[in-house]
Every structure is written in C-alpha cells, then in structure tokens.
Amino acid sequence: LNPSNMQAKAWLKNTVVIIDPCLNPDGRERYVNWYNQMVGKNANVDVNTREHSEPWPGGRVNHYYFDLNRDWAWQTQVETQGRMKKYNEWLPQIHCDFHEQGINNPYYFAPAAEPFHEVITPWQRQFQTSIGRNHAKYFDANGWLYFTKEIFDLFYPSYGDTYPLYNGAIGMTYEQAGHSQGGLAVQINDGDTLTLNDRIAHHYTTSMSTIEIASNNAEKLMSEYKKYFDDANTNGVGMYKTFVVTGDNYGKLEALKSFFDRNEIKYGSITGNALRGYNYFSGREESFNASNSLAVSAYQPKSALVKVLFEPKSKLSDSVTYDITAWSLPFVYGLQTYAVKEKLPVTGNVKTNDAVAVSSSAYGYLINYNSFADAKFLSSLLNNGIKVRYAEKEFTYHGKSFAKGTIIVLKKGNEEKLQEFVNLVKANHAAVTEVNGGFMDTGFDFGSEKVRFIKKPAVALLTGRGVSPNAAGEVWQLFDGQLNYPISLFNADEIDGNSLKNIDVLILADGRYKFFADKEAAAQLKMWVQQGGKIIAMENAAAQIAKADWGIKQKKDDDDKKDDKKDTDEYEALKRYENRERDGIVNNIPGAIYKVDLDDSHPLAFGYGNSYYTLKLNSDMYEFMDDGWNVGVIKKENQVSGFVGNRVKEKIKDGTVIGVQPLGNGSIVFFADDPIFRSFWENGKLMFANAIFLVGQ
Q1: Are 516 and 522 a contacting pair, CB within 8 Å?
Q2: Residue 660: which of 648, 646, 670 has the closest Cα?
Q3: CA separation (Å) from 315 to 151, 254, 307, 581?
Q4: Which pTM does this prediction carry?
Q5: Residue 482 DSSP code
Q6: Using CA atoms, how far apart are residues 125 and 93, in angstroms rounded to an integer?
Q7: Distance between CA 522 and CA 618 in Å, rounded?
Q8: Please, what are the domains in the chain?
Q9: Residues 266-281: pLDDT tens digits?
Q10: DSSP secondary structure string, 610-676?
C-alpha cells in the first residue's frame, strides 16, 4: 500500500479486499505463451493479422476446455472447487467478476439486464444501481463509453455474479473489450485503437470505485447481509420449505450429497409416512412415504440457493436470457423428489452404502448397475484386466431380483484377479451379491447368449478446428477425471481410416466436421463403422451424420414441409426493426428440460427404467427409425420446465432424440442433446457410459 494514499488507507479501515489470482480469461497461460510467439517488436493493430487470431481451443477455457465462469454452483473442475472453498470461508458482501468480451463492445457494469431471479432482494437490486452510478461518474470524467442493463442478466445460478447474489452478496459482472483479439493493441470498428493499457485502466477504475462505495456503505452492507441470513434461517426462502429425496440409489444419492457438501448446503434424513408434496416427475401433489429419505430444509443459511436449485419451474421475468433456463436438481440427478410446503424436522445422518465384504471363493458376483458410480466401477474392472459380463434380461437368484444391465464377474477366467476384484469392490463401495452357481431361479443362466461379454473398448475423441472446445473438453475430462479410462485424442482434420485401425469407439462431440463434406474421407469413416466400429455422435455431429445419409434422418419442421403459406396472414412478415431480438425468441430454446420415454430393454438405457429427463439445447429431432433403435423419444407436450419459443415448441414432439443405428457390423449412437452438458448433468453420464461400454457388445 502506498503510504501517501490516504484515501485507500481510509477505505481499508472498514473494508477487507480479497483478490482471486485465478485470472480470467481462464486460459491465460495458454494465451500469453501463444501471443508472445506471434507478436513482433511492435504490436500490429490490424485485427486481421495473426496475433489477433488465437487458434483452437481459444484462451477462455481451462486445461479441459471448461468455461469456469459457468461452473460456480456445479464445481465440476478443480479450479472452481478451490475457489469455492475459499469463497465460502470468507462469504464476502460484494463480489466482482472481471471478464473480457469482444473488442468492439464498450465496458459493461451493473446494474444487470432482466431477467433477475425472483430471490434477488430489493436491496441487492438497489445497491447494484448505486455501484453502477459510482462507476459512471469516473467513466464520464474520462470520456469512456460503457453500457448497463443489457445482455448480462441475473438468472442462471452458476455464474460469478448470480452465485454470490444467491448467497446474500452484491454480485456483479464487469466486462471489458478485448478477449483473445485484444493483444497489446488493436484497431476497433470506429477507428480507435484499444490498448492493453486502456483495458487495465478500465478494470482498475471499476475496482477502486467498488471498494470506495463499499467502504462508504459498510454499515448498511453489513446490516443487510445479517438481515438476509436471519430471514433465511427464520422464514426459509420460497413456497416449499422441505425437499425430500426418496429411493435407495446410493450412487446417485452420494453424488447429490457430494454436491451439497461442496456448496455447504445442510441436509439430513427424515422419517414419516403419508407425507404430501409436489412430485417432480409426475408434476402433481401426491402422498409419499419418506422413511429414511434424504431431506433439505429451506430454514438454513443457504436457503435462497436451495430454492433456486430445487425449484420445479424457474420464474422468468424476461424471456430474452443469456443462458439455460432449467436446472432443477431432481432432473439433473434423476432422483425422485417431493417438494413439501411445510417445515419438517430434518435430523441425523443419511444412510450410506457401506462397503460389502466379499470372499474370493464364490462362483461369481453380481453388481447392481443403475448409477454413474456403477459405470466408474465397471471402468475400473476393465482397466484392471478383469473379465466382465452383463445381463441383457432380468433374472432372479435365490429369490432376489436383478435388473437388466446387472454386471456379472465369474470366477472362471478371473482366477488370478479375484483378490484384486475384492479390493476394488471395497474401494468403490460397490453393492455386490455372491453366487454359488450359474443356475438362475428365473431368467437366463450365465451361459446364455443373453449374458454378454464386455470387450474392453479402445476409445478415441476428435478435437481441433471445427469441434466445440467445451463439448470436447466435457468428454476428455469425463474420461480423465471421472471414469479414469484411457482415451486417445485425434485432430479432426487429420482423421482417416488408417488412424482408426486400432480404435473401437469414436466420439464426435458437438461441432462441424469438415470430413463429412469430403466424399473420400466420409467414405473411409463409413467403411470403418461398417467393419465394426462405433460412432457416438452428439448434437450437431449427429445432425451432420443425418445429412450424410447414413440411415438417420432429421425430423423436418412443419414449415419446411409446406409448399406455400397461403393460409398465413399476409401481414405477418411486417415487423418492427427495434423488436428483432425479442421477435427472434420464438425460434429459441436456451436450455429447457424435456421428459424422454425410453426403450429400457436396450443396453443404452440400462439403469434408467422407462424415462429420462434431457436438457434440450436445440430443436433437433430425428425421424422414428424402422431399421434402428429409437431408444429415447419425445412424445407430445413433454416439456417439463424452462423457456421454449413457440415455433420451437411445435417442433419438439413425436421424434427420436436418443438412438442407435446399425451400419454393417458397426453402429452409430446418437444424442440430439449433450448428455454430459458442462459435466453437471449427472443423470446423463450413465447413458453416455452405456454407449461406450455396452452398446454393440
């Protein structure tokens, strides 16, 4: 601290300032190393030169290509986990999230755009405006351009502004022009030159302005902060006061508990028969049995965050929004949940799945398979050279029922690995049943063709130009950090039949793949599938395969089928230019939850039952296949929550969104949507694992 800076000394008498060193853009080191190789002695301000064109994946992502600014609540990445641990230790009254945007956009600061989530208090709204006016005073004095109340809303809960707001703070995003095109200096559209010094000066000014107004209002900030948490503990936020998660799927429950722990959300167990609450899966008020269920009370410090994360349908004050509009935890985790309007006693610990002691002398072992934790256990078995099978049909053994997909490990063929298997069971807390023979009470015996051997697949992922960095990163991190299963990464521009000769499964994340437009390259890939390969294609990759005519057909919009529009209003095309953004939302689906009906007899759906909830991020639907497997279909009016534009809503029905198309000796598994979106959509991870390990065995 400069000893002569009396103003700063005065601020620090009642203000603590914490600086997070995890700089944003998050891929700073990648960007800086690249830029220093590109720039000469003097910076070139021409935006078309190479120093302003950062290559794939771009600097705005971490090592696994995740946008950390969308990971605050989910905490899927190690950087976020470290950040949130410190955030919850300090729980600041004000949090500023500094960012950069396109080079031609003036500086953005609070107040934010609508929609504001309804849990944001009048005080939080008001003080955002006070801070914005303070910033404006300094920007006006310097003649700097800025904008407020546009683009950046306060709705999605996993941002660096909304997450603090839902934890009682004044959370704000500050956006400075620059990003990867900025360099040391760049000429912008109005002919001015934006320099790195300019960018630093703008962020420095809003930083000092924020500290100033915080210090000047320290007493009010503290009193409102205390009031916020007093109200949370005394009254609970929202209509529903207790959220009860039922069932005994320990893998999913452990994942949910881990999520609560990361966010310091209090939970416990609850007992009681014939309670009544809102059933998330049926959408109705129903009676239920809460015996030994996990429960979360709204009467706790994290009450607002609990309400936001659990609400069945989030209330939008404006449909023009910056991110997804649905994220309710029961659908994210696939867990039957009831929202209860009464305060119920939540006490004690939640029952856990204790490690099962198994011997190494049994004939065989049966492992439940209904969560991503089970898929991770399967991955560990394959990685350790243990021979594994799965049951294609239900069966019973000694009066106990086992579902389709049950994992079977036999002593025969694993004689040298049995102690290793026993150790893995203990380490993974796997639910295992020992069997003393292969004769089943009902269903098929272990020697049946309905019991499939799982060959350990060699898996590859395409990356590079044309591939969505976020989508590719989700897959890479899932293998590296969660499944702990080997995966080979290939450049999409360099792929050919020869490079895939030792690969069994090829994953095409969302993107635009050039080789589909190259007749010879596309033919080589198709031949690889016909010879026994398997493609897993997601989002636009699936749409490209549909256009390539490999047996999958995209469902057309009703408007595309019309030869004329004589029946429509001839004045319908007359629109006001100023309304163009709002008019466009009729074709928009920023992220909504839909119910998907499953063919649970197909291995892709093992572990799910007859339904699944998908986060729909586009309007893509596929025609029902006569010679393929329509594993997941959306029927009429299956929207559950989130905003969907009117025209898009008409299209999203009566089509396939998850399917398997046989092609020669191989197959194409396609997902219209991303089943592992941002790695927080937990309930899709098992299905993605099924696509890797079970389909086509």
Answers
A1: yes
A2: 670
A3: 18, 29, 12, 20
A4: 0.95
A5: I
A6: 14
A7: 25
A8: 15-229 (3.40.630), 236-340 (no CATH), 364-453 (3.30.70), 459-555+584-693 (3.40.50.880)
A9: 999 998 878 999 999 9
A10: SEEEEEE-S---BPPPSSSEEEEEE-TT-EEES---HHHHHHSSSEEEEEEEEETTEEEEEESS-TT
- Coil, helix or strand at residue 317: coil
Structure tokens, 622: 């596929």
> Residue 356 has which token pair?
């099962």
The rounded distance, in Å, linking the Cα atoms of 593 and 119 is 21
H or E, element range at 328:
none
Structure-block tokens of residue 576: 């006001």
Distance CA 162, CA 166 (A): 6
* CA distance linking residue 397 with residue 413, whole number of Å: 22
Whether 194 contacts 178, CB under 8 Å = yes
Two tokens at 215?
């210090």
Could you count the other beta carbons within 10 Å of the beta carbon of residue 86?
A: 11
**What tens digit of pLDDT does each residue of 136-177 get?**
999 999 999 999 999 999 999 999 999 999 999 999 999 999
3-class secondary-structure state, position 549? coil
For residue 696, which of 480, 496, 536 has the smallest C-alpha distance?
536
Q: Would you give the distance in Å from CA 138 to the centre of its chain?
A: 38
Residues in the chain: 697
Give the whole-angstrom CA distance, residue 98 versus residue 69. Answer: 10
